[in-house]
Amino acid sequence: xxxxxxxxxxxxxxxxxxxxxxxxxxxxxxxxxxxxxxxxxxxxxxxxxxxxxxxxxxxxxxxxxxxxxxxxxxxxxxxxxxxxxxxxxxxxxxxxxxxxxxxxxxxxxxxxxxxxxxxxxxxxxxxxxxxxxxxxxxxxxxxxxxxxxxxxxxxxxxxxxxxxxxxxxxxxxxxxxxxxxxxxxxxxxxxxxxxxxxxxxxxxxxxxxxxxxxxxxxxxxxxxxxxxxxxxxxxxxxxxxxxxxxxxxxxxxxxxxxxxxxxxxxxxxxxxxxxxxxxxxxxxxxxxxxxxxxxxxxxxxxxxxxxxxxxxxxxxxxxxxx
Length: 322
Prior knowledge:
Helix content: 40-55%
CATH class of the largest domain: Mainly Alpha
Number of domains: 3
CATH superfamily of the largest domain: Intergrase catalytic core
Structural class: mainly alpha
Order of helices and strands: HHHHHHHEEEEEHHHHHH
CATH architecture of the largest domain: Orthogonal Bundle
Radius of gyration: 23 Å
Shape: globular
């Protein structure tokens, strides 16, 4: 990413003279030249980590990349369509089908963890067994697995990076279904003789492995979701009664599962600061603008609560007058 997009442009700047405005200009130029915001975000992550090392080594006092992408991403969030999430009914259908499907049951643990713990793809594939605290029921998220294409040999390579932001390094409490999913994954690997053959920059003993003992790529997971949705919907249609309008799953991709987690937290009236911490966001605006959908149910509940409050207020006022 650095060699392709930054080395011959912003990479020529002297680090002591680099200002936040320089990086903002650089990101805006990339956007104006047609680069997608998600790709710019990837470039920013590389630059931010490099400059963070300069801060650690006391070369510069602060990281000029801090919040340098914030305005552009906020503008992009307003312009672009929000990534949708599964409704509560769709989430139950998805999880229930995975749990009972003979063909797709082995996918249940990883997708349940993504959907009910809100982990990013790189975070869930980077998990090691030492990151799972079964005694205290939490997941330690402190790194992300990145698959990139080398510009020299054009082959894909795995590297281990820090989390996307400092806030991304967090402990996520496990609900019972998530804990059971990890236990189910362990049992599945033991019963099928799967052992970890992957070693990424000294990291091994990964939690989620394919049948060859290697970590999953995002493309593989998205392809699996496509097949799961197709087979699930076929089963629903086959079992549907005449005249019945069956509930079908929409197209699902990995990041949609994380959005679903955020939406369920919102529907459960979880405090917004707690949501920010659970999702690992450095900026609370990201939590509200991108990851939380105000569903019809929550809007109706909010209106009902407001109506109840107003009735109580006026009844209390009239009682006092009497």
